[in-house]
Each structure stands twice: as C-alpha cells, then as structure tokens.
Specification:
Blueprint: E1 2-3, H1 6-16, E2 22-24, H2 26-32, H3 38-45, E3 51-52, E4 55-57
Antiparallel strand pairs: 1-3, 2-4
C-alpha cells in the first residue's frame, strides 16, 4: 500500500494489526520500490512524498 497521507497509513496499520492472518512484510516494499506511479510522481513533485507498507499472508494461520 502506498499513500501520501501518513495518518491514513497509521490508521491502516492499526486496522490490519489485529488480523492474525496478515503479518508485516517490509521486504514487500522493496519489491516495488523502483516502481514509480503517476500518483507517486505527483505527490513527490508537490513536496508530500509517499510512504508505503506491506503485509503478507501468515501461513501459520491459513494452512
């Protein structure tokens, strides 16, 4: 997930955190770090920047 809205990102982290079927996956961000969308270019251009987060399926809770 990518957004220019840091409070929204924090809200999403807090909403997903209790869901045991998902775990944070920082490596997932690295997988897409080189991809720059029009959305990201726009917010970087106006000085906001874009922040990211990534989760993956927790296989121990989803056999």
């Amino acid at each position: 997930m990518s957004t220019d809205d840091r409070p929204y990102l924090q809200w999403m982290r807090e909403a997903i955190a209790p869901l045991k079927q998902y775990i944070p996956y920082e490596e997932g961000i690295a997988d897409v770090a080189d991809i720059e969308t029009e959305f990201e270019r726009h917010y970087v251009k106006v000085g906001k920047g874009v922040v990211h987060m990534s989760f993956k399926l927790n296989k121990s809770t989803n056999p």
